[in-house]
Amino acid sequence: MTGSETQARIESDLQVMFSEQEPIDGPLTLYEAMARAVMYNLDHRVEVMNEAVSQNQLNLSRYDLLPQLVAEAGYRSRSNVDASSSENIETGQESLVPSTSQERDSFTADLNLSWNILDFGVSYFTAQQQADRAMIAYERRRKVLHGIIQDVRTSYWRAVAAQRLQDRVGPLLERVEQARSDSERIEQLRLDSPLNALNYQRTVLDAKRQLQTLRQELALAKIELATLMNLPPDQDFTLAMPEEDVVMGALALEPAELEELALAYRPELREEDYQSRVSAAETRKALVRFLPGLEVFSGLHYDSNDFLVNNNWADYGVRVSWNLLNLLSAPARLERAESREELVIARRQALSMAVLTQLYVSYRGYRMAEEVYSTNQEVADVEERILEQLRSSQQTATGGELAVIRGELNALVAQLRRDLAFARAQNALGQIYVTVGADPLPETIEAAEVGTVAAAIRETMRGWQDGDLFMRSTRMDVGAEQGLPDIS
Q1: Which pTM was predicted?
Q2: How far apart are CA 487 and CA 452, in angstroms?
Q3: For the chain, which terminal residue's Cβ has fewer other Cβ atoms within 10 angstroms, N or C?
Q4: How far apart are the C-alpha atoms of 329 and 313, rounded to whole Å?
């Protein structure tokens, strides 16, 4: 690769990666961010292409079921006559003068149809396997989509907290620095007890340190969200700020109900179901290969040789072939096929146990996150009321500026912790949906537009809060020809 080729590849990729996207013309809501991730995320695009390749492979495998129809034509020429004579095998004397029955130049054409019943059986099971592999690709796409939606949910709420913090932290930090400078001057001029001045500086610096630590935790949230939506990491955009009293989403189902849904709809388990059918078909293919091959054939032929009485003719027949040495490997092949089936079953059972564990861990984590968020909400409310009292005291000249600044710092830190607790609770709730395998998209979408997809996701997730996690669950039983809505 030359330098110019590498540079051309870089420019081409950068141009294509972020092309053909609807521009952001206002503050992004959560559902718009999810819709952009579904439509433009590159990892999801890769899975869409993998599913398309598997579907194309399925379409190709069906052609292997057809018989072979071979057309041949040829021209033949000799430099001399193709002549021969005969010899008496008893006397050794020539019994026929040299003669020929073949022209020096001839043209031939053949059309042969053949159908091997054994190959048809193998191809039939192979087509079944490919249909299951197409469904495996679909389930893998579901898994990637669920992960993307969950990552967007987490990054969005963290980015909201960061944006809300940035709108307030700048002016407050300037006042903190001014108050700290004033305190240092008071200490130097000995206008107050040095211990009181140092205690105040310690309090202010401690609150500032907490604020910086929390802000550092959120620093990358917006970049992560931009990456999930396939935006340039340095592109600036604004998030729609939710109301201050935004409430947590509800979870209408109990663990026992979620357990049954998870075992039925989790993409990894459904993938193992299809894989078990692939292994079962492999066992049947192994059995078919031990049978004799029965081939039916027929053909139409033409030869321009003028010495032939019939220049056109047809033939047909049946051939049977059987590789008897395959019987020697039959026990080993069958044992291997059965072992694969047992392995898939054992792997599915182990995965089922892991899914159940994830479900109960997620459910417990969500309930704990709810409690933590509720506590942080109460702390934030108390800090806000304290700040109101401090501001009232300042107006009546009974309190000082320093106390107000400290109250504002405490209130801001409490609000940020509340926002972070809310983001963690949303992440925990989303993790339950991921563990269950709930699909964020309906069966069909009218148009591949951000607004339309966002509305569909919003409607689906509102149904989740009512306990209807699978409004599109009929999709799970209709076969390999369908897939997720084509919004690529």
Answers
A1: 0.77
A2: 11
A3: N
A4: 43
